[in-house]
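Chapter review: from sequence to fold.
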Amino acid sequence: MNVTRKIEDYADIINLPRPELRCHPRMPMEKRAAQFSPFAALTGYDKVVAETVRKHEDNIDT
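The token string follows.
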């Protein structure tokens, strides 16, 4: 059984705002970002990622 749906099937709800629970309010962006700050402890990680991107871009250009 193959069920396919189109985005038009959801046209009545697709632009509705996200529901907010009173008992669980949305976390501010600053606190959400703080959850990911431990990854900043990886010193040199940004440089390694940038170098890897540069190498891959060089391979694409050649």
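Two observations follow directly from the output. Residues 7-61 form one domain. The helical segments are 29-36, 45-61.
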